[in-house]
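Quick one, probably user error.
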């Protein structure tokens, strides 16, 4: 059991691995309860999703944030992102979608 798994277990969350075509697709940490936060680590996009109930936006405290950071570190997802120095500045723009708005990060390269 990894350190992050132990941290999530201390918070009362149970680990579930979800597979797609015999490859791991998602790691979910969850617990029973209508308002209990659940955390998913989605492999295809290297995304972390925190939600409760039926995919409603969830919140988390600093203990859960530490567990999330530890899992991201264990998965190696933070290695390639922050080691690159060719980007100096990011700005957030709003794009409209048919059903909802999303924030998109636009990256400006160094000159």
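Nope, works fine. Designed sequence:
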């Amino acid at each position: 059991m990894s350190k992050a798994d132990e941290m999530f277990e201390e918070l009362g969350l149970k680990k579930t691995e979800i597979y797609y075509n015999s490859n791991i697709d998602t790691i979910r940490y969850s617990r029973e309860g209508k308002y209990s936060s659940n955390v998913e680590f989605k492999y295809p996009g290297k995304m972390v999703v925190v939600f409760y109930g039926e995919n409603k936006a969830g919140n988390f405290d600093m203990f859960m944030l530490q567990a999330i950071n530890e899992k991201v570190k264990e998965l190696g997802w933070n290695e390639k992102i922050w080691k690159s120095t060719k980007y100096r500045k990011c700005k957030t723009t709003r794009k409209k979608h048919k059903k909802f708005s999303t924030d998109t990060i636009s990256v400006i390269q160094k000159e």
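The longest helix spans residues 62-75.
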